[in-house]
Amino acid sequence: ILNVEQSPQSLHVQEGDSTNFTCSFPSSNFYALHWYRWETAKSPEALFVMTLNGDEKKKGRISATLNTKEGYSYLYIKGSQPEDSATYLCAFSPRGSTLGRLYFGRGTQLTVWP
Amino acid sequence: DVKVTQSSRYLVKRTGEKVFLECVQDMDHENMFWYRQDPGLGLRLIYFSYDVKMKEKGDIPEGYSVSREKKERFSLILESASTNQTSMYLCASSFVAGTDEQYFGPGTRLTVT
A100–B90: do the CB atoms touch at under 8 Å? Predict the structure, then answer.
């Protein structure tokens, strides 16, 4: 089982604060890195799928960067809002893995206080 | 919009019962997955399937089996439910393995008493 680490485990911020989380994954045999947002009582939804070293993706106030050589990805949220409160999951897909299965981290639980 | 549906949102079963969790996707996806989510442990893969009648074990297959008789439907079976199988079960599907996002169902919260 491959190890995907996310930090911090939880985060509490005030509305308007910017924040970031880290996902660490094995740097060898990289194929893809996924970020998902999982809001309470809803299904996880994909934010980004990143495949190239140096990739930067952006969706509104949320952005992500990828460093495959050192095995990490950052997720940034600019000007956090209460509706950003969710668990953010990253998932690693190694090259040559059995049929592209994903290995998930344990997530970062973000709470944004108004 | 891709839709992944699961047969029940909440389920309560007794120890020893046979339990079926059904998942259906409407986007003709090749790959389907069953995960369970427990507090502090993240999503753990139980089984996945890449084609009709094809299946692969994930990280925690013990106590579970699966069935995929049709492309759109992937069933998770608990042959004899036990209390340690009380959990949230999530189904997902994707088109291209690895680089395509996975689409998740709403989850089934199973309680085994």
Answer: no
